[in-house]
Design a protein that fits this description.
This protein is of the alpha/beta class. Helix content is 33%, strand content 18%. The chain contains eight helices and ten strands. A hairpin with a 4-residue loop joins strand 2 and strand 3.
Length: 283
């Protein structure tokens, strides 16, 4: 694992010392199972670089990231061709952050990276729930014979949680079998965040892992993702949903599937930076 002292940039406003930090930011630059358009491995470094162009202050929240205790630990060194080893490294890093009484915040990478971090959080927190914002179900049993894939990650997490602890929103793409399976095993909301307040009431004070796939946003706002899907939510809708979830006991979080090489305009990375600032301030 590289330490931020050896990197040119930290995410803006995240220069606190590790010992005194409440949140630890780290990158998981892995896209070894990307099945359509690869490139999300470059997201953590791109986000850090472009964050230098935004302010630490959020006019939405009236808070300043420079006044918070966030430490950017840098990127993990992950083997591009070995998903199992990459997940082990992510799990170990997340566990060390949790053991130190801090909150891990991971920047992917493809969505499979969530599995390693969730495994670590599930070991520490009983009854851990998943709140999942995404365009895709990610509930396949396997993808082209591979059980470890960005298309199977939530199914693998269900094998840890069991029924009634996974809440999915914004879903608008997947196999018929996945949607049918979800009716019995997860709480899935198609297209938007309808029912989010009810889900939060159901979760109550249970620990929550929040995972946000950037393709939950409409491609007109976030074209730089590996698998864009028309009909997504808007930035303000996502912001409001995150603000609602911040009332939960969020113990870990990630954002995944930003793919900077696919958006030469830079709009996608700029949006990701702004959203990351808002999430950090609300955690």
């Amino acid at each position: 694992m590289r330490n931020m002292q050896n990197q040119k940039y930290a995410f803006i406003g995240c220069q606190s010392e590790y010992k005194g930090s409440r949140i630890v930011l780290f990158g998981a630059p892995f896209d070894g199972t990307s099945s359509y358009r690869a490139g999300s491995r470059s997201a953590p470094s791109s986000i850090r670089m472009e964050s230098q162009g935004i302010e630490t202050y959020s006019p939405y929240l009236g808070k300043d990231l420079a006044e918070t205790a966030v430490f950017d630990r840098g990127d993990l060194e992950l083997p591009m061709g070995n998903a199992r080893q990459a997940l082990r490294i992510i799990r170990k890093n997340t566990a060390s952050i949790l053991d130190d009484g801090k909150k891990p915040f991971m920047i992917g990478g493809e969505h499979l990276v969530t599995l390693g971090a969730f495994e670590a959080a599930a070991e520490k927190y009983q009854d851990l729930c998943l709140i999942h914002f995404d365009a895709h179900t990610d509930l396949r049993e396997d993808y082209l014979g591979e059980k470890l894939s960005h298309a199977t990650v939530v199914k693998r997490i269900w094998e840890i949680t069991g029924d009634n602890r996974i809440f999915q929103f914004g879903i608008r793409s997947g196999m018929k079998e996945e949607f049918e399976w979800a009716k019995k095993h997860t709480c899935l909301t198609r297209f938007n965040f309808g029912g989010l307040s009810e889900a939060i009431q159901k979760i109550k004070d249970k620990p929550v892992y929040l995972t946000i796939d950037f393709d939950v946003l409409d491609p007109s706002e976030m074209p730089g993702t590996g698998t864009p899907e028309a009909g997504g939510v808007r930035y303000k809708e996502l912001f409001d949903a995150i603000r609602a979830v911040s009332a939960c006991n969020v113990v870990a979080c990630d954002v995944v599937e930003l793919c900077p090489p696919l958006d030469n305009s830079g709009i996608s990375v700029a949006l990701a930076c702004k959203l990351l600032r808002e999430i950090l301030l609300q955690l």
